[in-house]
Automatic annotation (TrEMBL):
Protein name per Swiss-Prot or TrEMBL: Transposable element Tcb2 transposase
Tc1-like transposase DDE domain residues: 5-61
GO molecular function: nucleic acid binding
Coiled-coil intervals, chain numbering: none
Top-level division of the source organism's lineage: Eukaryota
Length: 101
């Protein structure tokens, strides 16, 4: 399953055909809603772990990202998933305002 927001490039003919041919199911997600999007926490984790790493080429960067991704603790992902009910409630409580997520 691929989580996507409403960015127009994900709706392009080329992208849509590739996802269909690859058997990728997409899960629509509101755009501009980082507090409802736990992957934002994962991006922050990856960026944090990349700091201080010396990468000079795209190949080195890709390798480092893959290593970090594979070493992501299971508990981290579980905690993000389990935080969703609290995130949703915080969004409801905040109206259209900022939440701490």
């Amino acid at each position: 399953i691929l989580q996507k927001d409403n960015d127009p490039k994900y709706r392009s003919k080329l992208c849509t055909e590739w996802k269909e041919q690859s058997g990728i199911v997409t899960l629509d997600w509101p755009s501009q809603s980082p507090d409802a999007n736990p992957i934002e926490n994962v991006w922050a984790y990856l960026k944090h772990k990349l700091r201080g790493k010396r990468v000079c080429t795209l190949k080195q960067l890709t390798r480092q990202i893959r290593l970090i991704w594979r070493s992501l603790p299971n508990e981290y992902a579980v905690n993000l998933v389990e935080s969703m009910p609290r995130r949703c409630q915080a969004i409801i409580n905040a109206g259209s305002d900022w939440t701490h997520y």
